[in-house]
Amino acid sequence: MNYQIKATSVSNEDAIIHIKASDIDFGTKATPGDTLPNPAELFLGSFAACMLKNVERFSTLMKFNYSKTTLNVEASRLENPPRMEHITYHLTINSNDKKLNTALLKKNIEKFGTIYNTIKRSCTISGTIKAIENV
Description:
With 135 residues, the chain is of the alpha+beta class. It has 3 helices and 6 strands, in the order βββαββααβ.
């Protein structure tokens, strides 16, 4: 598989990533604002997107149902050289399905996630997956 995106910026303004029919604004100014994500946050967003896509994918393969997922991701950054050192995630899955095996789901996400595997080559990743019953 191959992927392609396009990004544009104008001097002293923020930038846009163009992906298929979507445009994603992000901050590039020297003084960061509070409304647009910065490149590090977009990086973590890609990690989160990979995990959530794999929850959906493995719900079919592992034959479990869920109503919603919530994923919190945090990262620590080193200064020299600037890079992510460690990523921590906490994934919560709302499900009443007894077939949901969170340990197996975690193993599958860690083994088959494209972005997950790319990132784990450069920094450590730790996290939890827990299921909570729908109310």
